[in-house]
Amino acid sequence: DGVFRRGEPGAAPTRPIVEVKVTCGLEEMGGWAEAQISLDSWTAALGATVTEEAALRLGLPLRLYLPPGSSDGDVVRYTVRSLGPQGVDIAFKLSARKHRRWARKGNDLHGTVTLSAWHRLFPTSVRLRGVDGERTIVRPAGERVKRAKPTKVTLASRGMPIAGSGDNPRNAERGDMHVTLSVRSV
Question: pTM for this structure?
């Protein structure tokens, strides 16, 4: 029951399309990490139990890189030519998993970082790992963070890749990263 379109009678034959749901995080949607396609997703899409051995034998991908800037609800198409005489089109429907630190709003990322109280006394630099895996200096050494009021910092071009701006997340245009820094009182 995972096949939801077939060719019309009298029309040129078309490949059937199978929809597979894939839950992924910001790292995968940005194109920096491979999205994992669970065997349960394949089982639900094909209507029969799919084991790892069966997936490999049928040529069903269990991992794939998504286009940089993919979003919740996007559909990524893939063709498995080893299935049937014309192959089968796979429509991977993306579902976003909540990130522990970052919230995505369009192509921008928003997050809050709570620093230890000693950052008020010793204004050392604050580095933060982005969803791309790279460390970024959010606050250079010497700048103080006030205890009473959180400090907001915007890092240009450190957010999510903009869809269609490049086929590699490293050279694609990106949104901004908005960080709110606060310091614990004790």
Answer: 0.81
- C-beta separation of 40 from 25 below 8 A: no
Give the closest residue to 20 by CA, choosing from 57, 53, 63.
Answer: 63
CA distance 160 to 131: 8
* Predicted confidence (pLDDT) per residue in 100-129, tens digit: 999 999 999 999 988 887 767 777 788 889
pLDDT digits (tens, 9 = 90+) for 44-72: 999 999 999 999 998 999 999 999 999 99
Tokens 């949607």 identify what position? 29
- Unique residue bearing structure tokens 């709110």: 180
For 150-156, the CB contacts below 8 A with 24+ separation are 150/112, 150/180, 150/181, 150/182, 151/180, 151/181, 151/182, 152/178, 152/179, 152/180, 152/181, 153/178, 153/179, 153/180, 153/181, 154/178, 154/179, 155/179
Task: Using DSSP, state whether 75 is helix, strand or coil.
Answer: strand
Burial of 80 per CB tally in 10 Å (0-12, 13-18, 19+): middle
CB distance 115 to 127 below 8 Å: no
